[in-house]
Write a structure and sequence with these properties.
Length: about 110
């Protein structure tokens, strides 16, 4: 998972955070030392801690995730030129995904 997160940090078409969350979950069971390193990482640590302890996503994270979903949909719609059923199906899936992200709580500062 950590290797996939590293690839995702470099490639724009692959996510990073979900693989880091999975790596933290895996390290929690296998290597508490590596889990602590990820949770204390200067760049990703705060987001990972917010998710692990509060199941929360920052407002900026929500914005960029939903913006990425929207841009991805536009690229799909204009480059693939799908039929209407495919376009509506993909739109529904992406809207459901963006809605789920948008409805997660924001991290509380005191936690």
């Amino acid at each position: 998972m950590l290797l996939l997160a590293g690839i995702g940090a470099v490639l724009p078409v692959m996510p990073t955070t979900i693989f880091l969350i999975l790596a933290v979950a895996s390290f929690a069971r296998s290597s508490p030392r590596l889990e602590a390193r990820l949770l204390n990482h200067p760049r990703y640590g705060a987001s990972l801690r917010a998710w692990k302890y509060q199941r929360a996503i920052s407002r900026a994270g929500k914005f960029w995730a939903c913006a990425g979903i929207g841009i991805g949909f536009l690229i799909f719609a204009f480059s693939a030129r799908p039929s209407w059923p495919w376009l509506l199906g993909v739109a529904a899936f992406m809207l459901a995904s963006a809605s789920w992200i948008a409805t997660r709580p924001s991290p509380s500062p005191d936690a």
